[in-house]
Amino acid sequence: KNFFLFLFVAVLILGGVGVSINTAQKAAKQNTSTEKKAPTFTRLASKTLAYGYWSDKNSHIEAVDLESGKIYALATLDLNIKKITVMSPNSMIFINKTDARDYGREISSFNFGNKLVSPTIFAAEGYGIDDYVISPSKKYLATWEISVPENSQGLIGGTSRVYTVDLNNPQRKNLIYDEPINSGSSMHYPLAITNSGEVYMDKFEANNEAGWGHGVSVSDFSG
To answer: How far apart are CA 66 and CA 2, in angstroms?
Structure first.
C-alpha cells in the first residue's frame, strides 16, 4: 500500500512539474514574440513640440517632430532656468538665473545656431520673475514679478508687480500693477497678452491652496 501511495504522489508531482515547465516555455515564447514586435509610430501632426527636462547638472531642451517622431537636441543649459518659449526657428526665450524660491533674475534668449545665451529683460531691483505670458505674434510680453522678505511665510508680506514689455524695445517696462501681498487680499498676475498689447490678469490670493480664479481684469499696454 505504501508503495502504491508513493507511486501515486510521485506521478502527481511529476505531472505538476511538467505543467509548470510547459507553462513557463509558453510564456517565454510569448515574451520573445512580443519583444520582436517593434512599436508602430502614429503620426500626430505636422508640427514640432519643444519641451525641457532636468538632469542632475543641467537643463535639457529638446524638440520632437510630431509627424516623424524624430527627437532633436536643441540646448543644454544650467539647472536654474524654467519656462521656455520658442520664438522662431532660430531662437527661444526662458526665465533664467532662478533662485531658491524659483524666481528668475532675467528673461534670456538662446540662439540655436551659435548656442549663445543673451539677457533680454531684467527683473526690477529686489524682485524676481515668477512667470510671463507672450502674445501670439511674439511681439509683446507681460511679466509677473515678486519681492518677498527672507523671513516671510509663503508670499505674505511681499509685493507683486505686473509689467508689459515691447520686445522691440525690451529695456522699457510699463508697470501695470504694484500691490502688497497681504493675507486675505488678492493680487493680479498676467493670464494672456494679445497682439494689440491688451493684457488680461487674474486675481490670486496668496497662501490659500488654489487661490486663483477671483476675477479677470484687462489693461491696455501702458496701464
So the answer is: 72
Instruction: Give the model confidence (pLDDT) of 76-93 as tens digits.
Output: 999 999 999 999 999 999
Interatomic CA distance for residues 223 and 208, integer angstroms: 28
- Per-residue pLDDT, 102: 94
**Dihedral sign, Cα of residue 137, residue 141, residue 142, residue 144:** positive
Query: 6-31 pLDDT, tens per residue?
Result: 444 444 444 554 545 465 566 655 66
Torsion of CA 66, 72, 78, 79, to 10 degrees: 40
Phi/psi for 26 (5° steps) reads -65, -45
Conformational region of residue 205, where left means phi above 0, alpha means psi within -120 to 50, and beta covers everything else: beta
Angle CA 102–103–104, to nearest 5? 115
